[in-house]
Amino acid sequence: GAKDALCKVANMNIGLPDTLAYYTEEEFGAGFKKTMAFQPRVIKQNRGSSGEGIWIIKLKEGNYCSSFGERCCEDGEKLMLMEANDNHEEEHTVGEFIEFCVNGRNDKSGEWTSKGVGKYLEGGKDAGGQLVDQRFCPRIVEGELRYNCVGDALVGIIHKKPKEGGISAVGGTGSIYTYYGPDEAKFKNLTDGFLTKDLPLVMPALGLPDEPIPLWWTTDFILSSPEGTPAEEEKWIVGEFNCSCVGISRCLAAYCKDDTPNACYDDITAEDKAEADKYGKIM
Fold first, then answer.
1. Nearest-10 crossing angle of helices 25-36, 94-103
2. What's the rounded Cα separation, in Å, for the pair 282 and 153?
3. Burial class of 131 by CB neighbour count within 10 A (0 to 12, 13 to 18, 19+)
4. Rounded Cα distance, 91 and 80, in Å
5. Other Cβ atoms closer than 10 A to 130
6. What confidence category does residue 51 fall into, taking pLDDT thresholds of 50, 70 and 90?
7. How confident is residue 172, by pLDDT bands cut at 50, 70 and 90?
8. Which helix or strand (DSSP H or E) is residue 199 part of?
9. Percent of all residues in the chain with a pLDDT value above 90, rounded to a whole number
10. How do strand 78-83 and strand 54-59 relate by DSSP bridges?
């Protein structure tokens, strides 16, 4: 689904109220310079997959203002960026980043090592051109939780921990996946709250009150509470909903990529095949 779904659940228990969406160059330039001056951010393009065009961004000088709106970044301020698809890092000015996001690679945006081409607003809102601006939650380095659901039923939980030194736990980046059943006790507070309090409100919040919950979909949760917060008081926020191109993580061994070009179904363990088969039967 569209990334601006995060804005529509911003005021729910699973959201962050300072989640913004930009559809024009003017909105993005003004909004990003204000949020970036206040705290580290995550900027997410709407198109693409596997973390391409999702940027974790910090001010190089760390000179954040003490209250939101106290100041705005200047075009020449330096940013440290990490892209979620492969955890590579780049350094650019605020002006160069905005230019890349709007117009792609050119003399004004500078040299980029990203595999992407930018132009995230191209075509306008109707064509899916948008950027979402969300607060960076530093505890993402501890991993995120993917809730796999069939309709309104939770069928499994995956803890996805980034490779050491990385931030993104996208498949193929060296991240470590640990699988849990839907009744895992350590996540009981999150599971109960999400399924009973938040889930019934999600489709109405997205403007789809009469539509059914997707057949096979996921929610990625990030822990936003400070370290030391008691488990019963932890706040987990949605980093992403996935419902249009959702893979089955138990089948990752069959995923062909640069270092596994000959991967196939037979590379999946018997245990993982059995779990994947369960999901299929439920669907």
1. 150
2. 9
3. buried
4. 5
5. 24
6. confident
7. low
8. helix 199-205
9. 77
10. antiparallel
Residue 226's identity, in one-letter code, is: P
Q: Which two tokens stand for residue 8?
A: 């529509």
Region label for 247, one of left (φ > 0), alpha (ψ between -120 and 50) or beta (otherwise): beta
Whether the predicted model's global pTM rises above the 0.85 cut: no
* Vertex 224: Cα angle to 218 and 230 (nearest 5): 110
Residues 6+ apart with CB under 8 A from 191: 147, 154, 157, 182, 183, 184
Rounded Cα distance, 47 and 180, in Å:
30
DSSP state of 144: E
- The chain-wide mean pLDDT, for the chain, equals 92
Q: How far apart are CA 208 and CA 5, in angstroms?
A: 11
CB distance 100 to 113 below 8 Å: no
Q: What tokens does 189 get?
A: 């507070």
Q: Which residue has the tokens 């370290």?
A: 227
pLDDT at 166: 65
